[in-house]
């Protein structure tokens, strides 16, 4: 090898030995730490618990019409969810990237899917989002951008879905911004949903994950449709004023109805002043208490 | 000649791929080429100063109201912790004269309220809360608070983790390690942490598409006595333009 070739080879190796600028490796299996919103992410939220959800009167009305038996409809037993399910579901993440085989550049980062959520492909190659009139699906269309070691992904073109798994709906105009912040073996995701149809303010959730040596599956067991007590063609629902769970949170936790019915006001500390005189501490947790051996339901 | 240019180009490319070799930009740690190191205040890659309000969209029933005795969803408690928490009595707690047990460093960010960050000197960032009127002091540069008894807010050592795009600083994280804590509650209903507890926090800022600025704090609480595994949560706040929401209130053991 001539000296010139040796220099070139050494330089090339040196370049390849470092990651591309403004990028870190997110790949691996990330174990979800469901220490917050444990019940909401696990068994699911209580019916009619929309405290802290900044939806508007249309969102509330739609949520009040929702019956949990909806998901027992044969057509919806395997109801596919939007990418918001990353935040609202309990699952861990498998993340990997795909490179252009010629240039080696990262084309996309991919969050593996689950039984009820398609993989999220975060396109990194600068391609534009589709036309506003392009078809929507549950997967949506996501592009990403690095700012230093922080990845921000923006998802559009999703179908109607849910914001909370008790009937609070998102529209097909909703968008989701997901920020990936890695701190060593820990990663925090900040998810912000904006929805001009059902939200008055962005809805923000943050989630924590730990890098795991246990591989996370990229798909759940196949969802099988079976009879769950709702005959095909019937849509379980509640007519206006007929939802039987509007005082469920009051009954279980003494949380006043005005708090459980949500709205942006319920997200902020000042709201506590409004309910302070209406609240008393329940004598004892009755159900879904979380401690070892405590009764669980839902 | 042709190979010579290519060689120089290749070496240049390889150097570009090494962020560490670049001069540091804003918050990069030095006042300029060969200059003295910047103070932590001058080197701050993110500006935490000002007012922030809690945005409570998570764990609502554990934060905005006082959860029922025995309601411990999500906390990886040991049996010893459950035994202690099961004995929690709000009336006794109120009468104990220690109403701030749920306002210690591992829990204070979960208390709905407003935060105020300010630098007290070049090496010390202070965080005040209106809820419970607490003050946390973050010592940079390896500095430590004076030795003394364990306290509610403990001894916090802070450092910056720079986020660079190439050599340019484009953001960063404040990492805080807190020790010397006095025992307290992770939740108002008596979920305990011991005085052997340590807390590691990461303070990050996120800009929303609507222009709002969020503070996202990831908190890792480790307690060999009362937690089976580190308790990991993340809490978010929205930047406020002023102190209009600032409303100091005393600690309460029941509300």
What does this 3D model show about the protein?
The complex is a heterodimer of chains A (298) and B (255). Chain A has 298 residues and is α+β, with helices and mostly antiparallel strands. Chain A has a domain at 29-212. Chain A has 7 helices and 11 strands. A 9-stranded mixed β-barrel of chain A has the order 1-2-3-4-5-6-9-10-11. Chain A has a two-stranded antiparallel ribbon with strand order 7-8. The longest helix of chain A is centred in the first third of the chain and has 14 residues, at 3-16. Chain A is globular, with a radius of gyration of 23 Å. Residues 11-20 of chain A have low confidence and may be disordered. The termini of chain B are far apart. Helix content of chain B is 15%, strand content 33%. Mean pLDDT of chain B is 89; it is low at 6-28. Chain B is globular. In chain B, a hairpin with a 2-residue loop joins strand 2 (114-121) and strand 3. Chain B has helices spanning 2-16, 40-43, 60-63, 79-86, 90-95; strands at residues 50-54, 114-121, 124-129, 135-139, 155-165, 168-179, 184-187, 191-193, 198-207, 213-222, 231-240. The longest helix of chain B has 15 residues, at 2-16. Chain B has one domain: Lipocalin, CATH 2.40.128.20. Chain B is an alpha+beta fold and 255 residues long. The interface between A and B is large, with 76 and 75 residues.
Give the SSE layout.
The complex is a heterodimer of chains A (298) and B (255).
Chain A: H1 3-16, E1 28-33, H2 38-41, H3 57-64, H4 85-88, E2 93-99, E3 106-111, E4 120-123, E5 141-147, E6 150-156, E7 161-164, E8 168-170, E9 175-183, E10 186-194, E11 203-212, H5 248-253, H6 257-260, H7 271-275
Chain B: H1 2-16, H2 40-43, E1 50-54, H3 60-63, H4 79-86, H5 90-95, E2 114-121, E3 124-129, E4 135-139, E5 155-165, E6 168-179, E7 184-187, E8 191-193, E9 198-207, E10 213-222, E11 231-240
Parallel strand pairs in B: 4-5
Antiparallel strand pairs in B: 1-2, 1-11, 2-3, 3-4, 5-6, 6-9, 7-8, 9-10, 10-11
């Amino acid at each position: 090898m001539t000296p010139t070739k040796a220099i070139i080879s050494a330089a090339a190796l040196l370049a390849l030995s470092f990651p591309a600028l403004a990028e870190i490796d997110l790949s691996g299996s990330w174990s979800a730490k469901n220490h917050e919103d444990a019940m909401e992410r696990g068994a699911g939220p209580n019916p009619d618990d929309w405290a802290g959800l900044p939806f508007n009167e249309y969102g509330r009305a739609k949520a009040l019409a929702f019956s949990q038996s909806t998901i027992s409809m044969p057509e919806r037993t395997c109801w596919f969810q939007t990418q918001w399910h990353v935040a609202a579901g309990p699952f861990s993440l498998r993340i990997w990237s795909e490179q252009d085989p010629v240039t080696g550049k990262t084309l996309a980062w991919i969050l593996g899917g689950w039984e009820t959520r398609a993989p999220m492909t975060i396109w990194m190659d600068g391609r534009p989002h589709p036309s506003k009139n392009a078809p929507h699906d549950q997967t949506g269309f996501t592009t990403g951008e690095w700012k230093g070691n922080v990845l921000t992904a923006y998802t559009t073109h999703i179908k109607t879905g849910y914001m909370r798994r008790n009937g609070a709906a998102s529209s097909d105009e909703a968008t989701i911004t997901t920020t990936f912040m890695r701190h060593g073996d820990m990663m925090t995701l900040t998810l912000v949903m904006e929805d001009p149809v059902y939200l008055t303010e962005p809805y923000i959730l943050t989630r924590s994950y730990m890098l795991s040596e246990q591989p996370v599956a990229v798909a759940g067991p196949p969802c099988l449709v079976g009879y769950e007590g709702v005959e095909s063609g019937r849509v379980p629902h509640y007519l206006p004023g007929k939802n039987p769970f509007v005082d469920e949170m009051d009954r279980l936790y003494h949380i006043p109805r005005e708090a459980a019915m949500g709205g942006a006001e319920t997200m902020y500390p000042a709201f506590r002043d409004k309910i302070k005189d209406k609240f008393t501490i329940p004598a004892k947790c009755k159900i879904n208490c979380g401690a070892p051996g405590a009764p669980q339901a839902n | 000649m042709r190979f010579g240019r290519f060689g120089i180009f290749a070496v240049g490319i390889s150097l570009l791929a090494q962020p560490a070799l670049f001069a540091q930009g804003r918050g990069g740690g030095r006042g300029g080429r060969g200059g003295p190191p910047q103070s932590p205040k001058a080197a701050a890659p993110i500006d935490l100063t000002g007012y922030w309000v809690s945005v409570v969209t998570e764990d609502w029933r554990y934060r905005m109201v006082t959860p029922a005795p025995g309601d411990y969803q999500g906390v990886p408690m040991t049996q010893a912790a459950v035994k202690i928490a099961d004995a929690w009595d709000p009336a006794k707690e109120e009468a104990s004269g220690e109403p701030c047990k749920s306002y210690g460093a591992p829990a204070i960010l979960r208390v709905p309220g407003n935060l105020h960050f300010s630098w007290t000197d070049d090496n010390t960032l202070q965080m005040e809360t209106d809820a419970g009127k607490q003050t946390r002091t973050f010592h940079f540069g390896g500095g430590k608070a004076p030795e003394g008894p364990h306290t509610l807010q403990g001894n916090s050592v802070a450092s910056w983790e720079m986020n660079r795009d190439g050599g340019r600083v484009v953001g960063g994280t404040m990492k805080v390690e807190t020790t010397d804590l006095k025992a307290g509650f992770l939740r108002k209903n008596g979920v305990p942490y011991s005085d052997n507890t340590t807390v590691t926090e990461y303070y990050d800022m996120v800009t929303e598409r609507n222009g709002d600025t969020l503070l996202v704090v990831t908190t890792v609480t480790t307690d060999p006595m009362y937690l089976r595994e580190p308790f990991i949560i993340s809490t978010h706040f929205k930047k406020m333009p002023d102190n209009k929401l600032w409303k100091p209130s005393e600690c309460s053991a029941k509300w």
